[in-house]
Amino acid sequence: MLYYILGVVLLIISLIFCVLYIKSRSKLKEKEAALLSLNKKTEEQLQLQQELISILSQELRIPMYGIMGLTNILSEEYPDLKNDKNLKSLKFSGNYLLTLINNVLHVNFLDSKEVTLKNVLFDIQELTKNITNSFNYATENSDTKLSFDFDPEIDQMIYGDPAVLSQILMNLLSNALRFTKNGNVNFSVNLIKKKNGVSTVSFKVNHDGQEVSIEEQNSIYQEFINAKSTNTPNLGIGVNSKITNRLADVINAELIVQNNSHNGSEYALVVNFNEAPSKEKSDSQSLKAFEPFSKKISVLIVDDNKLNLLVADKMLSKENYNCTTIDNGFDAIDLVKENEYDIILMDINMPKLNGIGTTKRIRKFDTETPIIALTAVDVTQLNRQIVQAGLNDYILKPYNKNHLLEIIDKHTHLTTQ
Question: What backbone phi and psi angles, to 5 degrees, belong to 160?
């Protein structure tokens, strides 16, 4: 009898445990479902945020292209204005605003993990010199001096991502200038070592301005912080504080901050670059020295923005290019059918028929003419579409004249060889 009673008790206990297990499992599933739902909503909100930032960035780039393009045209058409302080101020403000737009865009794609690094051959001396020149105006009306030094032992032509490198260096220089009032900012590029076709290069920015505290270092090189917690009014925070460290990680670079209470602060970026083979170096130099065409190159420019068409037309007409402009994709297709062009510059974001669709239709009857994408949208979103559509290259708006001419020459020379 005792065994029966024990058996019944055990059975009841087992049933109770089963019921509790089923209930706990049910609650766990409910919590898991709620967590998945919350995670999905968070991802959707993040996606919407990234799309909004991309749209805003694109909308900002379009008028920036017009402003910067017309400013350059004014300085070229009216040489007396080249040294005009107001025009210089406009140029500097335009470049600074473009840097901010690029920062926002880079943060957006770094967060979404969609950034794609380039590995292209570029002139590191020319790049760093141009960056320094872009900041010279900021020191013209003050006693702050900006100096630049480049180690001649460094191979000028190296492989890497010049856009990402430029962004980091511009942020470092910008922060150094914010800290320095009536002092010195020194930017130097030095070779650390060469081994097995790899050059290790350091980019140093030092200044004798205010000493940077540990808290302020974090604000420059780590995540966003509360601006009210900083003691220095000239501190570079916000977008720059997030982008610099993130981009350094992207290119596998080391970012070092050193403080000296007597000599100010020094920021050092250490990067490994693959050296270019001798043949590619000589090819690159010969391309730079290539003389412009003796005949006029015919260019079709497709853009729905009239101001953009005006700027591109004026830029190229002065350089022995014969330009035709059109403001929509459908008419562009008809023009390509009726005429021969050496190259086509194609805006991507156009109403009715965008640049991708226009290019696909042109490629059905013309597979030879180089077509270059003009886009205000970061190409990390468009890489696959650009290749599939048959576009040969891209230029990110707003672009400068030299870069535009370089891309056009590259593709028109290839087609005439």
Answer: 170, -165
* CB distance 246 to 110 below 8 Å: yes
Quick one: CA torsion of 220, 180, 101, 75, rounded to 10 degrees? Answer: -160
**pLDDT classification of 266: cutoffs 50, 70, 90:** confident
**What are residue 99's phi and psi, to 5 degrees?**
-60, -40
User: What is the identity of the amino acid at 170?
Assistant: M
What percentage of residues in the chain have a pLDDT greater than 90?
A: 17
260 φ, ψ (degrees, to nearest 5): -140, 120
Residue 11 structure tokens: 């059975």
Residue 244 sits at φ, ψ, to 5 deg, of -60, -50
Cβ partners under 8 Å of residue 374, min gap 6: 303, 308, 345, 346, 347, 348, 355, 394, 395, 397, 399
Q: Which amino acid is at 67?
A: I
Please, how many CA atoms are within 13 Å of residue 284, restricted to the half-sphere of its CB? 16
Contacts of 378 (CB under 8 A, 6+ apart): 54, 57, 105, 109, 396
* 83, two tokens: 């040294």
How is residue 237 written in tokens? 């925070």
> Based on C-alpha coordinates, what's the Rg of the chain?
28
Q: Give the closest residue to 139 by CA, choosing from 235, 237, 212, 207.
A: 207
Q: Find the helix packing angle between 329-338 and 355-362, rounded to 10°.
A: 20
pLDDT tens string 48-106: 766 676 666 666 776 776 777 778 778 777 778 777 777 776 776 676 677 667 666 65
